[in-house]
Amino acid sequence: MDRRAPPTRCAVITPALAKRATRGAPERRSPQSRLEEAVGLAAAIDLDVVYSATIPLSEIRPATFLGSGKVEELEGVVRAEAVDLVFFDAALSPVQQRNLEKAWSAKVVDRTALILEIFGMRARTKEGALQVELAHLNYQRSRLVRSWTHLERQRGGFGFLGGPGETQIEADRRLIGDRILRIEKELEQVKRTRGLHRASRKRVPYPIVALVGYTNAGKSTLFNRLTRAEVMAKDLLFATLDPTLRAVDLPHGTRIILSDTVGFISELPTQLVAAFRATLEEVLEADLILHVRDISHPDTDAQAADVSDVLEDLGVDPQPGGRVIEVWNKIDRLAPEEREQVENRAARGGAEAPVPVSALTGEGTDDLLGLIERRITAGRVTVSVTLAAEDGEGLGWLYRHGEVLERITDDDGAIHVALRIPPDRAGLITRRFGARRVHPT
Ligand SMILES: Nc1nc2c(ncn2[C@@H]2O[C@H](COP(=O)(O)OP(=O)(O)OP(=O)(O)O)[C@@H](O)[C@H]2O)c(=O)[nH]1
Ligand SMILES: [Mg+2]
């Protein structure tokens, strides 16, 4: 259904608190790049950004966030630019939101609401859609105002872009509560199914390699390059939402499953962190995590720090060297001397060394595949097993529990199998098939 409303005229406001007001919390980004990201978020949902500004302020006012002089000044802007919607890039309390809407006679959405809206538009799988809806309902319930979003969406509309005349209706708490219960039940059902899928995948001996990284870092482009797939890769924040999996054969024949997933962003709404835990659970279980960074971005370090924070929250040690490999993407965009620095850093080697690549041109991606293979197979052992000709069940078991490198049937029908397995499975094999030659690869 493509019922396009005329583009909504949007003003993007990024408040920049003075150091004092942030209680010394380190600000990782410049106000300018925060504003650029905010404009990118608005654009990600097809808003027509007609005005954008950083508003410096020394303290947050409980009633309107900004001081009264600023509120008035912006009222003039909203009127002059015929703004329908103000994206206020911070967390607003319901009271602040309402007061600003009154003062500006325009719809006001904060960062959480906007990101929820983007996620709502992008969710494709049933689970993704349910999780976004759940996050939405929780957000609404916490604000006691009926939202412009999922109710509108059910009518096939464009969420809060739904037009004027929309009033803030007191939410019917009970209605929302009932709905939350229903969705939670449905989610449980979907999760059970997914759990089964995952369990069956676990039995597949292929290691899982997960791509993570800041939104727009180039994960999907890299995924496509490595798998020759065609996942949507766009200069768009949160182009990918639902996880995608695909098998890749590494240079020496090791097969892995590569997973592309949702990108991270600073101040990811807590509702969504919870909701997307399931998506990110794939990451938790991955054998290897590729942290894809846009090394050409001025905020690359701040972005990497944000990603590390989320990984840490999920219980993954974000330090490169362990399960994480840092992939420094977009080297084609670097100036020659910057590029040299990056390459020197990579050449120093070691387990923590980043891998410079360009997902766009393909430079460095062969090295990356080689490294993935070395890391995956390191510590694996090869075992040789001989089976009686009639032991079809045993053969099936081996295929499920290891990576069969070679299988030879000799003249009297006996089957010799060379199997590569993680070391912790060696005991299992010896127990089941008797003592066998076990040697490291
Ligand atoms: N110059 C250059 N551009 C790249 C490279 N890799 C990706 N891009 C561009 O960066 C933009 C974002 O790429 P995506 O692959 O969609 O990024 P993503 O990390 O999947 O983003 P989300 O799904 O939004 O989290 C696209 O316009 C890509 O063409 C690269 O190596 N060099
Ligand atoms: Mg993507």
TrEMBL record:
**What are the UniProt keywords, alphabetically?**
Cytoplasm, GTP-binding, Magnesium, Metal-binding, Nucleotide-binding
Which SUPFAM superfamilies does the record cross-reference, listed alphabetically?
P-loop containing nucleoside triphosphate hydrolases
Residues of the Hflx-type G domain: 207-380
Q: Where does it live in the cell?
A: Cytoplasm
Q: How does it assemble?
A: Monomer. Associates with the 50S ribosomal subunit.
Give the family this protein belongs to, as stated in its UniProt record: Belongs to the TRAFAC class OBG-HflX-like GTPase superfamily. HflX GTPase family.
What the protein does comes down to: GTPase that associates with the 50S ribosomal subunit and may have a role during protein synthesis or ribosome biogenesis.
List the protein's name.
Answer: GTPase HflX
Naturally occurring in which organism (per UniProt): Xanthobacter oligotrophicus
| Gene name for this UniProt entry | hflX
